[in-house]
Amino acid sequence: MITSAEAVEAMVEVVPCEEVPESLEKKRIDYLAERKRPLRARYAYGIIFLITSLWAWFVRDYAQRVLPELHYMKSCGSGGNDCFHTLGVLRVSLGSFIFFFLMFLTTSNTRKLCEARNAWHSGWWGLKFFILLISMVVPLFVPSDSVQLYGEFARVGAGIFLFLQLISVIHFINWWNKYWMPDEQKKQSCSLGLFMSTLFYIASMSGIAFLYSSHAMKSSCVLNIIFITWTTILLIVMMVISLHSKVNRGLLSSGIMASYIVFLCWSAIRSEPANEECNRQKQGNVNGDWSTILGFLIAICSIVTATFSTGIDSQSFQIKQ
């Protein structure tokens, strides 16, 4: 009968000691490499979002002159007008919806790094870009009535997306607040946090004044006045809550969120038709100007920030008990 000591010696002879650390180290390296793939995937999806956003901008303002071939497509209507401007953007949006909904269906409920669905989520980019291209071409053959119907549903989806985006932006703002606000234990200076808080609130108040002067010049602009006034009330409420003794979290978080809310209000109001009497900014400037570029850049930054803050921490949408 073999004793326990003899069994241990036999195991040592079968598996050399130096091979065990090497095997564990190899597994650790493979695991870390697998963990980095989702981070690269976020960059890739961010690039896809940037490409589709630039394409939508191009289709809305410039494609009618650059792509005359679309004029001959039956689904694009007379002169190809149904594939440009607003309907053109809706077609790009429909293509993006097809692509990302397909990604959702094929990667939903992925829980482990070793699953095939995770490999599909983090790789196969050549095939994915080909699917994206097909997704962008398919809406060009969809009748205009169906595209307009999709646009009505897209309004609801945009509202839900904006709500989720706000939640993830709040998560990012909390991280930003911890990074910029001083640490009492380390006796750091609060000058940077105070300066940035003041800067964001000045920007917010300046934005409110600009909205009143450019989009609520007349008492007949009731809807614009309601939106701007409610935004102002939200700013005041956030500032009061931040200064309350039971909260005592400083003004930086509320200042950043105030600036973001003012931007959302501005984005909503400036989408009025150019011929509206309350939209003095767009009159005589159909294709947009610096404000279009600024709004486009801010929107991209906010959505990409929301995407990365959500992807870094999977608990962004979990409510703590």
TrEMBL record:
<feature type="transmembrane region" description="Helical">
    <location>
        <begin position="125"/>
        <end position="142"/>
    </location>
</feature>
<dbReference type="InterPro" id="IPR005016">
    <property type="entry name" value="TDE1/TMS"/>
</dbReference>
<feature type="transmembrane region" description="Helical">
    <location>
        <begin position="225"/>
        <end position="243"/>
    </location>
</feature>
<feature type="transmembrane region" description="Helical">
    <location>
        <begin position="289"/>
        <end position="312"/>
    </location>
</feature>
<dbReference type="GO" id="GO:0016020">
    <property type="term" value="C:membrane"/>
</dbReference>
<comment type="similarity">
    <text>Belongs to the TDE1 family.</text>
</comment>
<feature type="transmembrane region" description="Helical">
    <location>
        <begin position="154"/>
        <end position="173"/>
    </location>
</feature>
<keyword id="KW-0812">Transmembrane</keyword>
<feature type="transmembrane region" description="Helical">
    <location>
        <begin position="43"/>
        <end position="63"/>
    </location>
</feature>
<feature type="transmembrane region" description="Helical">
    <location>
        <begin position="83"/>
        <end position="105"/>
    </location>
</feature>
<feature type="transmembrane region" description="Helical">
    <location>
        <begin position="250"/>
        <end position="269"/>
    </location>
</feature>
<dbReference type="Pfam" id="PF03348">
    <property type="entry name" value="Serinc"/>
</dbReference>
<protein>
    <recommendedName>
        <fullName>Serine incorporator</fullName>
    </recommendedName>
</protein>
<keyword id="KW-0472">Membrane</keyword>
<keyword id="KW-1133">Transmembrane helix</keyword>
<feature type="transmembrane region" description="Helical">
    <location>
        <begin position="194"/>
        <end position="213"/>
    </location>
</feature>
